[in-house]
Amino acid sequence: MVIKVFLASSSGSTAIKKKQQDVVAFLEALKLDYTQLDIACNEENRMWMRQNVPEEKKPTNGIPLPPQIFNEEQYCGDYDTFFDAKEDNSVYAFLGLPPPPGSKEAVQADKEHIVQNGTHAAENPDDSIQAQVEEEEEQEEEELRQLEEEEEAEAQEGEEDDLEETQEEEAE
User: Fold this and answer.
1) Average pLDDT for consecutive 10-residue bins of the chain (172 residues)?
2) DSSP single-letter state for residue 56
3) Shortest CA distance to 129 belongs to which of 100, 109, 144, 143?
4) For residue 120, what is the DSSP state?
5) Fewer CB in 10 Å around end: N or C, the chain?
């Protein structure tokens, strides 16, 4: 999957330039593969971008401004939605990519997929996580108790065997 970032290399707007730089710098920081497509120098890129931004995402004048972000042919969003995803630690979901293991986004995704007592964790994620942790702790304690009981039973059997051997030896 290739992330496509539609940019304008010769934009007169400082705000647009800063937004474009922010998107590109963040993608580079995450070491994601992406392609920059210039809409200022390439009419095909400009037309493709304009045609593929969903109608409900286009501004009132109908012309979407860069940067616009796609995952292959799938529209991800503009700078504002990218910024929101960045603030929410959900950039990978925004881009339609699986988050790397151990990342904040992966941890958050795990929390949201936990089902506890028939309710989705998103309804009250802290309670579900806490309940899961407590349940795991209880299982570990139960396993430890069982191991201790088994060891104790084995020790008693060993003592009984020793006692029997001693009694047999004395009887001889």
Assistant:
1) 93 94 96 96 96 93 94 96 95 94 79 56 54 74 83 77 69 67
2) G
3) 109
4) E
5) C
Provide the pLDDT for residue 37.
97
Dist. CA 121–CA 129, nearest whole Å: 8
Q: Which residue has the tokens 């390439």?
A: 42
Nearest to 75 by CA among 3, 165, 159, 15: 3
* Sign of the four-CA dihedral 58, 60, 63, 68: negative
Q: Which of 51, 31, 47 is nearest to 39 (CA)?
A: 47
- Return phi, psi of residue 147, to 5°: -65, -45
Peptide bond into 100 cis (omega under 30): no
DSSP codes, 69-83: EEETTEEEEEHHHHH
Amino acid at 66: P
- CA pair distance 3, 34, nearest whole angstrom: 4
pTM of the complete model: 0.63
